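Record type: ASSEMBLY
Status: queued
Input:
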Amino acid sequence: MSRHAVLLLSCRDRPGIVAAVAGFVTDIGGNIVEAEQHTDPQDGMFFQRVQFTVDHLQVDEDGVLEAFTPVADRFGMEVQLRFTDWQPRTAVLASKPPHCLADVLARAYTGELALDIGLVVSNHDDHAGLADAFKVPFHFVPVVDGDRGAQEAEVDALLRADGAELVVLARYMLILSPWFVDRWAGRIINIHHSFLPAFVGASPYRQAHDRGVKIIGATAHYVTAGLDQGPIIEQDVTRVSHRDDVATLARRGRDLEVTVLGRALRAHLEHRILVWGNRTIVFG
Amino acid sequence: MSRHAVLLLSCRDRPGIVAAVAGFVTDIGGNIVEAEQHTDPQDGMFFQRVQFTVDHLQVDEDGVLEAFTPVADRFGMEVQLRFTDWQPRTAVLASKPPHCLADVLARAYTGELALDIGLVVSNHDDHAGLADAFKVPFHFVPVVDGDRGAQEAEVDALLRADGAELVVLARYMLILSPWFVDRWAGRIINIHHSFLPAFVGASPYRQAHDRGVKIIGATAHYVTAGLDQGPIIEQDVTRVSHRDDVATLARRGRDLEVTVLGRALRAHLEHRILVWGNRTIVFG
Amino acid sequence: MSRHAVLLLSCRDRPGIVAAVAGFVTDIGGNIVEAEQHTDPQDGMFFQRVQFTVDHLQVDEDGVLEAFTPVADRFGMEVQLRFTDWQPRTAVLASKPPHCLADVLARAYTGELALDIGLVVSNHDDHAGLADAFKVPFHFVPVVDGDRGAQEAEVDALLRADGAELVVLARYMLILSPWFVDRWAGRIINIHHSFLPAFVGASPYRQAHDRGVKIIGATAHYVTAGLDQGPIIEQDVTRVSHRDDVATLARRGRDLEVTVLGRALRAHLEHRILVWGNRTIVFG
Amino acid sequence: MSRHAVLLLSCRDRPGIVAAVAGFVTDIGGNIVEAEQHTDPQDGMFFQRVQFTVDHLQVDEDGVLEAFTPVADRFGMEVQLRFTDWQPRTAVLASKPPHCLADVLARAYTGELALDIGLVVSNHDDHAGLADAFKVPFHFVPVVDGDRGAQEAEVDALLRADGAELVVLARYMLILSPWFVDRWAGRIINIHHSFLPAFVGASPYRQAHDRGVKIIGATAHYVTAGLDQGPIIEQDVTRVSHRDDVATLARRGRDLEVTVLGRALRAHLEHRILVWGNRTIVFG
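Status: finished
Output:
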């Protein structure tokens, strides 16, 4: 696959944006290979993802953003520029359940997900073998004497030391403090084992069983200060029945969780996501 | 299709129930054509649906329940006996949106659903033409001067006068009083336009849009005193995206609503549902 | 909803198309409210759907295509211009099964689908009552003495007399001749009761049962000379099991058929479909 | 989870079977915890899965089948008796694509699937590292000088030497000879990367792309002599669009393949499957 540039844009909607952006790409010698836009008439906003070739650019790659400044200024745009070969340094945090961790490690190993996993961190010591199998350093950081703050500070230090650009909560069951969420804002993706906003918090499969739902789900979202309240990236569901007890719901759910987390990570890695308020635009 | 009998049974679980029920059917000259059972180990309960032939029964159909009494007594069973050619006298209640009403009327007309629809009742006068098209009497029962009680009493009187055995809330937007729900307990099926328990109450598509979910749903349930809290019979979902505004969510949802309501009605008509607490067992 | 114009474009891919089209719309005083493009790198093709406002156009609506000619010529484009308030004169053809016919009639009646249904044609006389309920003229055109050609000629004459712009095969079981398909090319939409290309031709539910599939489907497609070979517009599926005999598969399938046909018709009515070879681009 | 016994039964349908089987279990001191039956009226066949407790059996576990002989003989039953703690010695065969192999290995490692994987065999040498990560012996058995027979004989010898009870084709792209299929009949499960019977054979994602389908699927089935013709155990699908080129279809499909293969393996491990002709009964 060729290397491309990706512009992610948002601004108030007005006539002429699409023409200006397309003109810019043509002017610098790029060819648009994918472009998708979204207009939110209710909020009066415009969002766009433009992917274009870079092999015949007439500006340095480092100069693209600067060259774009006149367009951005004209429309008051928020702009992100990224390239398609990005492979972020990644930390995976997991508690007891191994399935999401095992899946993320295996997909990074086979190249299915472009993750450069630098470390696995867990508040349990169960996963050393799994991390080791994939030759990823494992850090056991338990909560000692109930001191959640110390544990979190240690996790943060490990992530910073490793240069993490992305933090994957692969069924990490400790709630993160606002300061931690703040520091890693927009870079933490969590998988929650319910179809949010149903069944926030603990034991969602138990909650689902008690409510007698006929379908269960999983939700991947960016983490914000509100528990399970962050912008949803991806969800999926599967049918269940009265025959499924809580353990069976959990087992069926595990298939969903790995699939949904994988899709969300891919969208993030491919720069397909714009966050607007508490919602996401995920370009196809 | 041949006419069959259906036994719906529930009792505390103990050894020997299946053998006793199967023996009973064999003894009275029936042949079991479908049998499904469910054991809830958590609650220690046993549930069963047994469908059997009646053309060579050695007892009168009216005598089946009596003949079954020794088995029922031995295990402390709750028992319902029904026959597969049941076609309940049905009232359909609908407010402004016509799609569920139109669908239920059309499916009763083509024989897809074994409903004997005696009347359509609405608090708006929009649907007279639709009811008339299918030659079903239409009753416009508006709320006058805010007197919800009077309106509800009139609806109740209409239903009783017509001998309704089943009440379908086909997007009926007035909340029913406890006394009404009580009187028609187990015989009112509602379609709610969300994936319950997410988005209870008014404007669920608006709520879904604001939360930024990636999937929307519809839920058919028996009506109980708690708003949108009754035992869920059937749910289904469909994928949506950031491109879908509230109106588009509502449109996509309409397809779901008619499908989910139709499946729930069919399960009810085929005596496939047992209610246990706030959950349903829906036999396949 | 405001009235908009829709340009559907296709041409060989080259740099500058998006900029040129966006520039054109801005130049004539339109504002793009939706734009989606698709590049097929394998075939080297570019496809686009551009929806724009028309209330402040600086050219007559009739003059838009002419004004666009320079752009179209420069890129060698195939161009279609349509407006969003299009409500095509429609003929519905149906054989014995009533469910798709009933659904299309009901959705046109409630405004769910912007169809102006001029007539219903059937080779059986079962549906006169249904058409009459919705006040649509019904034509019973049977095959007499095995003369399929005469029957087809009569159907064609009826459609032409009524000015049909769209022909919906709502479970019409007679295979159309090449001359008929040719005359109505791009304007006939069929619903086939299988997940094509599996189970082409007669009795697909029987075929599905005999193969023991765990999922069944329905497919809406434009009709071409090859039986069930035309460009697929929409498909959907539902889970089935060993418990489902052929009749049950057919019943479950009916829900799918109406939903899939409805979605395909909507995409057609909203000018979202471009046909390329034997495939469709269906813009979101 | 307690250890249970599972009886899988099939015979011609006649009155009294359910009563006789239930009576038998009660008589030997078992308690039925799950029972599901299926009657195929078209073929006149009866199938049943009965799971029962064994902790208070009044016969030896080894004697259960013999004790059941009178019932089996009376109805002419085919009978299989198994126990729920079965963990079959398993061989995984894989060609180049690693995702199904990695998933099966990971799920066996985490205990998600009760597989005792004795060896991995591949006609490519790419997967030694992956097998090694999970500490499973890896055997590279390439086709040398086009001699497929020799390669197959070597694979067979490895499987027999290891005592394999189950052979998982985790995207193994060599077609097995009839003698091999015969020897391992009922014990080979394959994952095919299409929604069978559509797109049999090579490059199904290419075929799907060229046909322009809107949904792709994956199918797990028992392997028989006819290529991709064996009894289907499980299928699932996912929605695709015109934007998805062949590589993207393949990527989306990989998620399906691992999920579908996992579900099929679980059903096999839990003794939920009866094969009848070319179809399966998969008890819930």
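Annotation: Chain C has a mean pLDDT of 95.
Annotation: Residues 156 and 180 of chain C are 7 Å apart (CA to CA).
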